[in-house]
Design goal:
By secondary structure, the protein is of the alpha/beta class. The protein has helices at residues 2-18, 46-58, 72-77, 144-148, 160-168, 179-187, 218-231, 233-240; strands spanning 21-27, 36-38, 41-44, 61-67, 83-87, 99-101, 106-115, 130-135, 152-157, 174-178, 195-211.
């Protein structure tokens, strides 16, 4: 029996070793529903499931590198990661030369958020001077002119969840959140404690970036994402994490 178990262990180890490793980046600022991180490794979440599905499609072993958002570009430039997901072309001034973009996978909205009864829907230009909850390392193009003028001041937190928790606790009156994170946060709150959308600030199509390197199956990954999008698998992953009605219109103020 011990010999059989040893052979099975050897076979399993050998099988894993035969699969090439694909290095995925994970931003430590992500919280649920994007990813839950334990012991410096993601263990569940929308983007985690997406990356796992990509790896299965092309027969590679995923390796997750959790890092600060401000280090992601450095990791791409130095060749430390192979795939970066949940990213928009709008976030780059220049096209990353060593990476190839996937098709758009998820449509994201960045929202101006407030507490129930604290303020009515309004464009950000009508906000009085104040601090606003933001995520460290994130850029907010719509709000940047107001930040430059000093009418708004950033109060950064290390994750989107912390931004929403501080808003609910009254640390500031308004914050910025992506729609998926807001929906996830509100699911656990009673109706009178749920945060409300006041304005749509920005909308982006998010996808993945894959290193253009002969050592990894770049084109195979890009084709896999096309198949996953066309089959509805990506939409099912989004819905699994509370993205109900994610494609619906939101009738609130726009800038």
């Amino acid at each position: 029996m011990r010999t059989l178990l040893a052979l099975l262990l050897l076979w399993t180890t050998s099988s894993l070793a035969e699969h090439p490793v694909l290095r995925f980046s994970v931003a430590e600022s992500w919280g649920m529903p994007l990813a839950r991180i334990e012991g410096d490794q993601p263990v569940e979440g929308l983007v985690y499931d997406l990356m796992q599905a990509m790896a299965r499609e092309v027969g590679v072993r995923p390796e997750f590198h959790v890092m600060a958002r401000l280090r992601l570009q450095e990791a791409m430039d130095s060749g430390d990661i192979d795939v970066r997901c949940y990213v928009s072309t709008q976030w780059f001034n220049d096209r990353p030369g060593d990476f190839v973009w996937s098709i758009p996978l998820i449509h994201q909205r960045d929202l101006l958020v407030g507490r129930v009864g604290d303020s009515a829907p309004m464009p950000p230009e009508q906000l009085p001077p104040q601090a606003i909850g933001t995520v460290l390392g994130y850029t907010y193009a719509t709000l940047q002119p107001l930040l430059d003028q000093g009418r708004l001041r950033r109060e950064d937190s290390r994750s989107q969840l912390l931004v929403l928790q501080k808003l609910q606790a009254g640390r500031y009156r308004h914050a910025v959140s992506n729609q998926l994170s807001l929906q996830w946060f509100n699911q656990a709150q009673p109706a009178d404690r749920q945060l409300q959308t006041l304005a749509v600030l920005e909308e982006q199509d998010l996808g993945c970036m894959v290193r253009n390197d002969p050592a990894i199956p770049t084109q195979g990954l890009l084709r896999a994402l096309v198949r996953m999008k066309q089959s509805g698998e990506i939409e099912r992953i989004v819905q699994r994490y509370g993205g109900t009605g994610y494609g619906d219109n939101i009738s609130v103020a726009r800038p």
